[in-house]
Every structure is written in C-alpha cells, then in structure tokens.
Amino acid sequence: MSLQLTYQDVAEHNTKNDLYVVIHDKIYDITKFVDEHPGGEEVLLDVAGQDATEAFEDVGHSDEARETLEKLLVGTLKRNPGDPKPKSPKPGAVAPAANNATAGIGVGLYAVMLIGGLIAYFAYNYLQQQQAAQSA
Ligand code: HEM
C-alpha cells in the first residue's frame, strides 16, 4: 500500500487507536506497535500525527527497529507549500557549540599559562639580580 498523504491527513491519526507518524518523509501506521514499543507508549503518543524523525533518530534506534518500521509503512508524505520543513537530526548542532566552549576554555587556559610563565620568568630574573647584588 502506498498512499500519498499530507501533513493534515497524518495529523488526523493522532490517538492511541489510530496512530500515524512521519519519519524521513515516510508515513507509518504504528497503531499496532504502540503496546510493543520497548521505549514505551508515552513517547509515541507524544509524536502522534506528527513528524517523529528527530525523536526517532535521537534515540539511535537499531537496525531491527528500522526493519520493524518498514513493516508499518503506509505511504509517503505529500508536502504542501507552507508545511513544516523536513525534520532531521542535526548532529552538528551540538558539537560546534561544545567545541566553541572548549575552545574558549582552551584559549583562556593558554592565556593563564602564558601570564603565569611570564611572572615566573621575571620573578626568577629579579631574584637572580638580588642575589647577584647581595654577593657583589
Ligand atoms: C515510530 C516507530 C518506532 C519504532 C518502530 C521503534 C522501535 C523501537 C525498538 C525496536 C526499540 C528497542 C531498541 C532498539 O532496537 O533500538 C526501541 C527503543 C526505544 N525507543 Fe523506539 N521506536 C519508534 C519510535 C520511537 C520514538 C518516536 C521515540 C521517541 C523518543 C522512541 C524512543 C525509544 C526509546 C527511549 C527506546 C529505548 C528503550 C530502552 O532501551 O529502555 N522510539 N524502539
């Protein structure tokens, strides 16, 4: 069976007894699967009638989960103008922020080390001079 449904059509199937979700622009009837889902029914009801791509991918489901999904396929999404854009996980979204944060700490740390090094260097020179002056 390969239907072409719009977001509006999918949104009508948003109850436990009639539950569709969109994942990667494909539509799945997960009504029968709700009770079997190892992750519980709550998370599936949260995305009922909606785009669940991000939620599904964020969990890092196994290949087995993806096979289960293929068996529940009912059709593909027909995107109308003005519909939400395709959702996909953004792996880069978190990583660069984390990198920037560590880069910030890194630069700060270098600055502290540099200043500390300079202070130690001048203190050492000063003490050497003092000693030289005393022994002279
Ligand atoms: C709609 C189709 C879905 C299918 C066919 C599916 C299938 C599965 C399967 C087979 C597992 C067992 C572990 C694995 O094989 O990866 C699992 C675990 C899990 N799923 Fe889903 N899932 C679906 C959607 C979702 C969604 C939308 C969420 C939202 C957050 C979700 C959250 C979880 C969580 C948290 C677990 C881990 C449970 C645990 O290890 O205790 N799943 N799912």
Helix and strand sequence: EHEEEHHHEH
Strand content: 15-25%
Number of strands: 5
Give the integer mean of the pLDDT values.
87
Largest sheet: 5 strands, mixed
Bound molecule types: protoporphyrin IX containing FE
Q: Considering DSSP H and I runs of 4 or more, what fraction of the residues is helical?
A: 40-55%
**Radius of gyration, Cα only, in angstroms?**
29 Å
- Which architecture name of the largest domain does CATH use? Roll
CATH superfamily of the largest domain: Cytochrome b5-like heme/steroid binding domain
Instruction: Work out the helix count.
Output: 5
Q: Show unreliable segments.
A: 92-97
Strand order of the largest sheet: 1-5-4-3-2
> What's the end-to-end separation, in Å?
100 Å
What is the CATH top level name of the largest domain?
Alpha Beta
Count of discrete domains = 2
Shape: rod-shaped
Given the helix and strand composition, which structural class is it?
alpha+beta
The CATH topology annotation of the largest domain reads as: Flavocytochrome B2, Chain A, domain 1
Explain what this protein looks like in three dimensions.
This protein is of the alpha+beta class. The chain has two domains: 3-78, Cytochrome b5-like heme/steroid binding domain (Flavocytochrome B2, Chain A, domain 1), CATH 3.10.120; 91-136. Helices cover 53% and strands 16% of the residues. The protein is built from five helices and five strands; from the N terminus they run E-H-E-E-E-H-H-H-E-H. It has a five-stranded mixed β-sheet. Strand 3 and strand 4 (26-29) form a beta hairpin. The N and C termini lie far apart (100 Å). Mean pLDDT is 87; it is low at 92-97. The structure holds protoporphyrin IX containing FE. The site of protoporphyrin IX containing FE (HEM) has 20 residues, from helix 2, helix 3 and helix 4. Residues 21, 28, 30, 33, 37-39, 43-44, 47, 52, 55-56, 59, 61-62, 64-65, 68-69 line the site of protoporphyrin IX containing FE. This is Putative membrane bound hemoprotein. Its main location: endoplasmic reticulum.
